[in-house]
Design goal:
The protein has 178 residues and is an alpha+beta fold. The chain contains 6 helices and 4 strands, in the order H-H-H-H-E-H-E-E-H-E. The chain folds into 2 domains: 84 residues, no CATH class; 78 residues, Alpha-Beta Plaits, CATH 3.30.70.120. The longest helix has 23 residues.
């Protein structure tokens, strides 16, 4: 319990410091540099470095203490990510449907979301490879809290609609909820 709640409280503090533009120690600077060069998130890099430190400390303090330290820091990292990035993680929702005009209307008019439309083809299924149809592929950026309601509404309109969801690390420009 101490590892989890301690990690939560540490994460809150670290998250507020990072959100305010500060740094706790030199590891954040190394992580930021590595992030720009290799694409790993700052949190992933810091967690990796600290895990190496904790495993080295396991030699002196025992494996159990090191594992509790890793659990504490993992909880802190996830909490700090929520503080810095917010609880509304953005997600790209892409829909391929034969009723694409209705899908566009549902997303824009019912859910008040902006969309991007790609011209595409649907079909190419096993056993009927030569069968294809032109369609609009609809993509929108939503929060993870909105995905279920939008998918439900579209599935009701077109039960055969094809969805895929992608996690988005960063969204800028366009019409995004503030």
């Amino acid at each position: 319990m101490i590892a989890i709640f301690g990690g939560f409280l540490i994460g809150l503090g670290v998250g507020f410091v990072i959100k305010g533009g500060g740094v706790i120690d030199g590891i954040e600077i190394i992580a930021e540099y590595t992030n720009k060069r290799f694409g790993f998130t700052t949190s992933e890099i810091i967690l990796f470095i600290n895990t190496l430190i904790f495993l080295t400390a396991a030699i002196y303090f025992g494996l159990e203490a090191a594992m509790y330290s890793i659990l504490t820091y993992f909880t802190a990292t996830k909490t700090a990510d929520y503080v810095v990035d917010g609880f509304e993680e953005y997600t790209a929702l892409t829909i391929v449907s034969k009723d694409y005009e209705l899908v566009k209307s549902i997303i824009v008019n019912d859910f008040n979301k902006a969309i991007s439309v790609y011209k595409g083809e649907r079909g190419y299924l096993p056993g009927s490879f030569g069968v294809k149809y032109d369609c609009d592929i609809v993509m929108t950026i939503v929060t993870r809290l909105e995905i279920h309601r939008i998918k439900e509404a579209i599935s009701e309109a077109d039960p055969a609609a094809f969805f895929y969801v992608q996690s988005i690390k960063e969204v800028t420009g366009g019409i995004i909820k503030k």
